[in-house]
Each structure stands twice: as structure tokens, then as C-alpha cells.
Amino acid sequence: MKETFLGVDVCGYNYDELAAILLDNIEKNKKSFLVAINPEKIMKAQDDEKLKTLLNQADYQIPDGFGVILASKLKGGQVKSRVTGIDMMMKICEVAATHNKRIFLYGGKPGIADAAKVELEKLYPGIQIVGTLNGYEKEEQVILNTINENSPHIIFVALGSPTQEYWIVNHMDSVSPIIFQGVGGSFDVISGNLKRAPRFFQRLGLEWFYRLLKEPWRWKRQVILPMFLVRVLRK
Ligand code: UDP
Predict the structure, then answer these.
(1) Cα of 179 to ligand 1 centre, how many Å?
(2) Transport: present as a keyword of the record (predicted)?
């Protein structure tokens, strides 16, 4: 089930539904690509047809931004609850651990994916993280060989957006993983190198506000939300 916001698709699955679908896709060897959608990306795609095509090319566009849920509510849509990139990644790790699926972590500064691996192993006993690679390795053959070495079923790509999404569409047919998710700065958060907003802010959907307090120079990102809502409602 998908809903479109200014030409960008968003799917309405929750964490459990999507995790079950992904496990099934692994069994069927059906390559799948997940992208996190927020108002910022949708607005950027308005002036960038290539980006819009890329976002719509993903198999599952998860509603990461609170603004997307708000827009859906205001227009009586189907996308009811947030599915954040990092929480979806955690859910996939959880089911991978219990279903013996192999994981690869690609991206972040040197050492970050390894540190995230250590944390994920603590959180999900039995998880098989069969390889890691930092996001600054430039040798294409090294990247491909390292990823393919232990035939992972799932790869999380943390190169920042939209670099990671372009990387995924350009490589998904030629590397062994079946499930591909672009996860931005998630390895930084999981490894403990970057703090996420306190639960209080997360629960109220106010992570953006917390970020604004911590990094006021990002204010430009925040004025996008009202512009986005106005445009969605005008349509
Ligand atoms: N990064 C990388 N290789 C690069 C550029 C960036 O691995 O050439 C990593 C960077 O270390 C960080 C992530 O990509 O971990 C980008 O995180 P950010 O939160 O900026 O991404 P967003 O979620 O905003 O797209």
C-alpha cells in the first residue's frame, strides 16, 4: 500500500509488517531496497527529477519524518505511524538474529561500522554481522569484494543521502545482498558517537526540535516543514 506526496511514494507498513515482508523476500531471493522519506527529501525532489525517480525506484519508502505523518493525517491518508530509518534497521537486525540472516555494515568513518557491530552484537545475541567497511574506501573492486566475501543477505549503507541511495541502485544487481537499506548517520548513533534526541522528544515527534536546539544552523531545514505541508494541502 502506497501513498504519494508531491509525486514521491511512501508506504504504509509498520515495523513488523515490513520486517516479515523482507524475510520473505530473502527466502524468494527478491532484491529489495528501502529508503527513508522525510519532507526535506520530498521538497528536494521537487526540483530534482533524477532524485524523485530514485526515491520512487525504491521498493519500500518508509515514512521517517514526522511531517509525512502529519501531512497524511491532514489529507485523510493511510500512512499512520512513523517508521524511522534507524528503528527499521534495528528491527531488521532483531529478525536477522533470530532467522540466521547475515548482515554487512557499509559506511561511516573508519572504525565506526566496527564499533556499531560491537553494539549490535550486545543488543541482539546470535546476530551475524559478517563484514564491515568504512565509507571512505574508494577502490571499487575492494568495496565489491569485501561485501561479497561472506555472502550477506542484508546490507546497511551509511554514506549519507542521496549518495547511499545512488550507490544502492547502481550496485544492487551486482553484489550478493538481497536487502539494501540506506541508513544515513545510523552507525554514528549506534556506535555511541552521536547522541539521538532523548526519548521524550522522540515520543512527541519532536526530534527535529531537539536537533534545532543542538544545531541551530540547521534552521533552514526546519522551515521546509511548513512549506511542505502547505504544498501537500494545496494539491
Ligand atoms: N559518509 C561516508 N562516506 C562519505 C561521506 C559520508 O561514509 O564519503 C558517512 C558519514 O561518516 C556519516 C554518514 O555518511 O556517518 C552521513 O550521515 P548524515 O547524518 O549526514 O546523513 P543523512 O542521514 O543526513 O543523510
Answers:
(1) 20
(2) no
The answer to whether the CB of 136 falls within 8 A of the CB of 187 is no
Check: CB of residue 56 under 8 Å from CB of residue 45.
Answer: no
- Where exactly are the structural domains of the chain? 2-191, 200-229
Per-residue pLDDT reduced to its tens digit, 132-189: 999 999 999 999 999 999 999 999 999 999 999 999 999 999 999 999 999 999 999 9
Q: Which CATH class is domain 2-191?
A: alpha beta
- The CB of 185 under 6 Å from ligand 1? The reply is yes
Q: Which residue, judged by its Cα, is nearest atom 20 of ligand 1?
A: 160
pLDDT per residue as tens digits for the range 121-134: 999 999 999 999 99
Ligand 1 atom at minimum distance from 183 CA: 23
128: enclosing H helix or E strand: strand 128-133
